[in-house]
From TrEMBL:
Signal peptide: none annotated. GO terms for biological process: proteolysis. This is Peptidase C1A papain C-terminal domain-containing protein. InterPro entries: Papain-like_cys_pep_sf (IPR038765), Pept_cys_AS (IPR000169), Pept_his_AS (IPR025660), Peptidase_C1A (IPR013128), Peptidase_C1A_C (IPR000668). GO terms for molecular function: cysteine-type peptidase activity. Belongs to the peptidase C1 family. It comes from Ladona fulva (Scarce chaser dragonfly). Keywords: Disulfide bond, Hydrolase, Protease, Signal, Thiol protease, Zymogen. Coiled coil: none annotated. The keyword Signal applies. Residues 56-296 form the Peptidase C1A papain C-terminal domain. The keyword Protease applies.
Length: 297
């Protein structure tokens, strides 16, 4: 197996086996479903007035600031499908809907509905564009839906999507027995002109956005040594490039005087620190600060 070969090399001491290291190299590459070469440039939001590090807490965790939004704690699992772009987008949408509603809308938004019905978003399990997901959310709306096997919401993640292969067809109806009506369950972002925006590649700008409005989507380059991450602050040291990946940034902090971004991955709780990872902050590690996007509720 590819993972066993990797772990036999001179890997960082924080490398560890997980279920993804047992994948073949082709299956690992599938998980990285963002193509930054065709990243759509969104309007850039610049906070005003901007704090240059002054007034920000040393450590911040969105899960602690908004404890009434348990949805922020959720670690989702994209399975063997290149739908990280959809998961990152719906995770941020779910979190921000809950925050904006003061906990009234504490639900999972459906990656299944987004990846199968948004044609402008890309290619479903074969990759897509999280920035387009926010525009689709405002224009068309997205229904609720939990993870594979959960039966939660209108359209939970399907076995076909979780297992990889072809992208499921777009079905504009809720699963039988859900008690939900598809049109009534659609949730929309703010007006199209302000529904999606990027944050400049500036640490203080990103911090202020998260502190005031909630988690954001971050896109970065994945290398071999990220696959085997288990704990600590990640910095790329060894291994080849595997693809571009989208995740959710929920906060920041410092560990042993090393600044980091606190992030939630979509590879389930068996990976990393129960699905969470830390990545070096302030040095655009693997491009993490270069492509940060989000949207308005």
């Amino acid at each position: 197996m590819w993972g066993r070969v990797l772990l036999g090399q001179s890997a960082p001491k924080r490398a560890a086996r997980n279920y993804i290291t047992e994948f073949d190299i082709e299956d690992i590459k599938i998980l990285m479903g963002v193509n930054l070469r065709y990243f759509r440039v969104l309007p850039e939001k610049r906070a005003s007035p901007i704090f240059r590090g002054e007034g920000f807490p040393i450590n911040f965790d969105a899960r602690e600031k908004w404890p009434h939004c348990s949805i922020i704690n959720s670690i989702r699992n994209q399975g063997n499908c290149g739908s990280c772009w959809a998961f990152a987008a719906v995770e941020v949408i779910s979190d921000r809907m809950c925050i904006k509603s003061n906990g009234a809308l504490n639900m999972h938004i459906s990656p299944q509905n987004l990846m199968t019905c948004c044609r402008s978003c890309g290619y479903g399990c074969n990759g897509g564009y999280p920035e387009e997901a926010f525009l689709y959310w405002a224009r068309t709306g997205i229904v609720s839906g939990g993870d594979y096997g959960s039966n939660e919401g209108c359209q939970p993640y399907s076995r076909q999507a979780f297992s990889g292969g072809t992208t499921p067809a777009c079905i504009q109806q809720c699963q039988p027995g859900s008690g939900l009506n598809y049109p009534a369950d659609l949730h929309f972002g703010k007006h199209l002109s302000s529904s999606a925006y990027s944050i400049s590649a500036d640490v203080a700008e990103i911090q202020k956005e998260i502190l005031e409005n909630g988690p954001v989507v971050g896109c970065f380059k994945v290398y071999d040594d990220f696959i085997t991450y288990s704990h600590g602050v990640y910095m790329h040291r060894t291994g080849g490039f595997q693809g571009d990946h989208a995740i959710k940034i929920i906060g920041w902090g410092e560990e042993n005087n090393m600044p980091y971004w606190l992030c939630a991955n979509s590879w389930g709780e068996e990976w990393g620190m129960n699905g969470i990872f830390k990545i070096l902050r302030g040095h655009n590690e693997s491009g993490i600060e270069q492509f940060v996007i989000t949207g308005n509720v």
